[in-house]
Specification:
Strand content: 15-25%
Strand order of the largest sheet: 7-6-5-4-1-9-8
Order of helices and strands: HHEEEHHHEHHEHHEHEEHEHEEEEEEEE
Number of domains: 2
CATH class of the largest domain: Alpha Beta
Largest sheet: 7 strands, parallel
Number of strands: 17
CATH topology of the largest domain: TIM Barrel
Distance between the termini: 80 Å
CATH superfamily of the largest domain: Glycosidases
CATH architecture of the largest domain: Alpha-Beta Barrel
Number of helices: 12
Shape: globular
Bound molecules: 4-nitrophenyl 6-deoxy-alpha-L-galactopyranoside
Radius of gyration: 25 Å
Helix content: 25-40%
Structural class: alpha/beta
Length: 466
């Protein structure tokens, strides 16, 4: 009898502990995210098989939209899954490449608008386990690798658009120009009359039924089956209703520390951060809300075999510094191939960004926005320390006279040095409050050379925009 009482008491204590989990404030949930500054977006799915081409013709636009822009019938598109067999998938290598690039979190498309689930799900047979020769959950080994390397994991989920599971919505898009489909006029007329759908098979259920039968159970699976999840990245609230959004949002209690974005349904479900896409906001656009720029390395999120229009590592390093100097995060995308490999150009860019971050990451991680706005020659990030404030001046355009001049500077200077290597630099502040730093004749790092300046006290943030 004593044993029974002890066991019941222990169970009750454990249950109370579980339910008594402290509710975290938004700021407490955002601490790691604001320090991380840099993450990897991964857009992967069966669309990597056609890779931008359908029936011998190249379909314009972003690769993961090929089913919509090509108005590919459901039955035809689902045949593609039979060719999806990513035998070269190596999640351990993927996570190491993200880590070595200086990225602190990964967000992967668990289900994009085509409805294909990269995970084992009971809610639909349209998933990697049931519909492909690969036959295994792709997210579990990625979650394991993220835990192994200390990288936080997030899932992108297309909660409203779903072009294969019946009842899912479809953004209204005309057949893509350049897709010489003789039937385009009829198809486009049909989609106009059918809320963006092009195939009757997409309308055998209502949107409300899709939400209850697919979206809600799948989001619950994602929040339950992969351990601690750091981010749920909603996308495109096409035809979303408050009722559906409320149902989905209530599932987040399964992951009390989770962070979400502003794309569940606008404007009354703002989430934790804004998501400017393919652009970096101007200072005037910022209102103090957390934000994250998501961006492709080339011109597409999902893999297209002929898109080699990649941004340079220098451009992307400068984007990261521009974003950090404005207090935002950078979610940089990789679109893996159908075989499960990162495109070689992406591998090279990640390696080069990682070389820069290894030496200069201190100027990004855990920093705050510049108190002065933008400089014509580069960007500034700041960090408050026990002895004062550290300023990181990232110089893009090396001054012709080898001198950095920063007016409106009223702090006592402690030191100025090159962040890479620590070489001290001659610096002084005039009575008029102008900081002058003498620089070496050539930029040590053409991408961005960081000057680390330590001062006493806090910066009071007057306008320094020149
Ligand atoms: C969406 C997706 O349609 C796209 O495939 C990709 O996943 C991207 C990250 O997100 O694209 C959008 C979403 C929102 C806007 C533009 C493109 N928007 O609000 O302007």
């Amino acid at each position: 009898m004593k044993k029974v009482i002890f066991t019941l008491t222990l169970l009750l204590w454990i249950m109370q502990g579980a339910f008594a989990q402290k509710v975290l404030t938004r700021d407490e949930r955002m601490v790691w995210w604001r320090e991380a500054r840099f993450g990897m977006f991964i857009h992967w799915g069966v669309y990597a098989v056609p890779a931008g081409e359908w029936k011998g013709q190249r379909i314009g636009g972003i690769g993961e939209w090929i089913m919509n822009r090509g108005k590919i019938p459901v039955a035809e598109y689902q045949q593609i899954a039979r060719q999806f067999n990513p035998v070269k998938y190596d999640p351990d290598a993927w996570v190491r490449m993200a880590r070595d690039a200086g990225m602190k979190y990964i967000v992967i498309t668990s289900k994009h608008h085509d409805g294909f689930a990269l995970f084992e799900t009971k809610a639909s047979k349209w998933n990697v386990v049931d519909a492909t020769p690969y036959g295994k959950d792709l997210l579990k080994p990625l979650a394991d690798a993220c835990r192994k390397y200390g990288i936080r994991l997030g899932f992108y989920y297309s909660q409203a658009q779903d072009w294969n599971n019946p009842g899912g919505s479809a953004a209204r898009r005309p057949t893509r120009e350049g897709w010489a489909n003789p039937d385009s006029a009829r198809i486009d007329a049909y989609t106009k009359a059918h809320r963006g759908h092009w195939d009757p098979a997409q309308e055998t259920k209502t949107f409300a039924q899709y939400i209850d039968d697919v979206a809600v159970p799948q989001v619950r699976e994602l929040l339950t089956n992969y351990g601690e999840l750091a981010i749920l990245w909603w996308d495109t609230p096409t035809d979303m209703t408050d009722e559906a959004a409320t149902k989905l949002q209530s599932l987040l209690s399964l992951q009390p520390a989770i962070i979400t974005n502003d794309r569940l349904k606008r404007p009354n479900f703002p989430g934790d951060h804004k998501t400017p896409e393919q652009r970096i906001p101007n200072l005037a656009d910022l209102d103090g809300t957390d934000w994250e720029t998501c961006m492709t390395m080339n011109g597409t999120w999902g893999y297209k075999y002929y898109d080699h229009n990649y941004k340079t590592p220098q451009t992307l390093i400068r984007h990261l510094l521009d974003i950090a100097s404005k207090g935002g995060n950078f979610l940089l995308n990789v679109g893996p191939t159908a075989e499960g490999e990162f495109p070689p150009e992406s591998v090279d860019i990640l390696a080069k960004m990682g070389q820069w971050m290894k030496v200069n990451g201190e100027a990004v991680y855990g920093t705050k926005a510049s108190p002065w706005g933008l400089f014509t020659w580069g960007r500034c990030t700041t960090r408050e320390t026990p002895k004062g404030t550290t300023l990181y001046f990232s110089v893009f355009d090396w001054p012709a006279d080898d001198r950095l001049v920063i007016p409106g500077f009223n702090n006592n200077l402690i030191s100025a040095k090159l962040l890479a290597g620590g070489t001290r630099l001659k610096a002084s502040v005039t009575k008029a409050g102008v900081l002058t730093i003498d620089l070496p004749p050539d930029a040590p790092d053409p991408a961005a050379t960081v000057i680390k300046v330590e001062v006493k006290g806090r910066i009071d943030g007057r306008s320094m925009t020149k």
